[in-house]
What does this fold into?
Amino acid sequence: MSQGPADTIQPSHAMTPIKRLQGKVVVVTGAGSGIGRATAVLFAAEGARVVLTDRDAEGLATTRQRIEQTGGTCWAAEGDVTDGAAAERLTGEVVAAWGTVDALVTAAGIATGGSALAASEADWERVFAVNVKGTWLWARAVLRPMLKQGRGAIVTIASQLAVAGGRNNIAYVASKGAVISLTKALALDYADQGVRANVILPGATETPMLERAMQRRGDEQAARAASRSRHAMGRFGKPEEIAHAALYLASDDAGFTTGAVLPVDGGWLVA
It folds into this structure.
């Protein structure tokens, strides 16, 4: 018997979007702006209780407000990712209050610019402290509850420049290469204990960091045009586009994915 429009069978989930992080607890570093903010907001919309941390108190407050305005649940804690004791303390407080930590996204990062001759030792040390040490310290902090429950996902943020190379940004490029290696080591060390670790390589993405990088080059408009043209898609990425890649890797959809290096770069690496 044929069915008319009134008899059309609709999927049972048609009016109920699946929330891929429902019931999960996720920590996002660098949540005060850029990729970190977009990730935190998306994860909250996907049902996660999100722990926000950033040294930018004002940015952190804005992210928290955006999440709460849409009915999401979050916990905001100002702090520097290079403070290992603070990472351990906050993780302990979260576990005591919310029971566990299911995923971590390490979006905190800085860049200072400069070639090998132009960069200072202080610049080098600060960039590596935030980008590499901060990633390791937070991974270490959340690994304990993850291993205890036998599952967890760590998503780190590197850069396409870590693979392709980049001019006049030596500390940043080198640090992001280290983040890739660190993530692969995490993936191997804990694969048989239920913890996955994967790394995203964003292309140039419309964030405050990109804006500062363009300003350092003098002619900002020319720098933007040159960078956009380097991407096969001819544009910069949006923080939300990187956040959706992080969502996949943090969710159970990526249950058989660990040690992956995922470019989300508008075609930079193939151009």
